[in-house]
Design brief:
7 helices; alpha/beta; FAD; 325 residues; five-stranded parallel beta sheet
Length: 325
């Protein structure tokens, strides 16, 4: 495989939007979309109501499919492969894929996104898929007529809770604080639903069950008192962490692992390496803001490649002039 002009690591709104803009600029970008994570977190989302242009909303997977097809329409090449190691410091960037393929590019756009945070309890790994889940749309069906717990107080937790009311007898939302972080509209929808109740100032400190979840222990974050809560399903919705482990020692990261960029540009500390989406943004974390920074990264990459081409042309002209003189 030859050297690409632009290699985009990651898909989701940021990666696919970068692909659309880079492809329309004639750069023929290659997108490493991921072997099982293509499309990013929105592939696990039901209705997206706040992405501009869809007055009646759109399903998350449908939105990502539209973005992927649009990128390919203009000439982007989508590879369903994972980046497993990178060498981004040189003039030619090198990336090793999980399927054994090697990729080279003059410019790289990092759109690696984020992953679900875990509770950090020992039972979490053991009972993963046996009552513990991070995706209501994936697993909600398995908890019909059962008691369900959702852990978290943000918009994602409210969305999960509301979706799970279609299946469970009850949905209990466990929140560490005494209030919700969710937007007003999402919080009110959850509060108004007859099947949803809240456990505020509460933290999950143990999960019970051998072969499947049977309940959990809640600890009061104010008094320290503990209580047991029966449940057959636990859905964890406490946020995300940037997927940047691959990039440690390559690009500069902040104290929380997010990629540092020279705002308002998407330029990292390495020439020819740009970053966008949830791997950069720990403030907004919205599909539309990720898409916006994906656009910015593609424009920055285009300008970088043009500047490199101009510099190469000048250098060639000077050499030729010197030889001819």
């Amino acid at each position: 495989m030859g050297t690409d002009s632009v290699l985009i690591i990651g898909s989701g709104p940021a990666g696919y939007t970068a692909g659309i803009y880079a492809a329309r600029a004639g750069l023929k970008p290659r997108i490493l979309a991921g072997s099982v994570t293509a499309g990013g977190a929105l592939m696990n989302t039901t209705e997206v109501e706040n992405f501009p242009g869809f007055a009646d909303g759109i399903q998350g997977p449908d939105l990502m499919e539209n973005l992927r097809r649009q990128a390919e329409k203009f000439g982007a090449v989508v590879e369903y492969d994972d980046a497993v190691s990178v060498d981004l410091a040189g003039h030619t960037k090198k990336v090793a894929g999980g399927n054994g393929q090697s990729y080279k590019a003059r410019c790289v756009i990092l759109a690696t996104g984020s992953v679900y945070k875990e509770l950090g309890l020992p039972e979490e790994k053991k009972l993963n898929g046996r009552g513990i889940s991070w995706c209501a749309t994936c697993d909600g069906f398995f908890f019909r007529n059962q008691a369900i717990v959702v852990v978290g107080g943000g918009d994602s937790a409210m969305e999960e809770a509301l979706f799970l009311t279609r299946f469970g007898d009850s949905v209990t939302v466990v929140v560490r604080r005494d209030t919700l972080r969710a937007s007003r509209i999402m919080a009110q929808r959850a509060r108004d639903h007859a099947k949803i109740r809240f456990e505020f100032n509460s933290e999950v400190t143990a999960i019970h069950g051998e072969d499947k979840v049977t309940g959990l222990t809640l600890t009061d974050t104010v008094t320290g008192a503990t209580r047991e809560l029966p449940a057959q399903g636990i859905f964890v919705a406490i946020g995300h962490a940037p997927r940047t482990d691959l990039l440690a020692g390559q690009v500069e990261l902040d104290e929380n692992g997010y990629i540092r960029v020279a705002a308002p540009t998407t330029q990292t500390n390495l020439d020819g390496v740009f970053a966008c989406g949830d791997a950069v943004d720990h403030r907004y974390r919205q599909a539309i803001t990720a898409a916006g920074t994906g656009c910015s990264a593609a424009l920055d990459a285009e300008r970088y490649l043009a500047a490199v081409a101009d510099a190469d042309s000048i250098a060639t002209a000077l050499v030729e002039g010197s030889l001819n003189g």
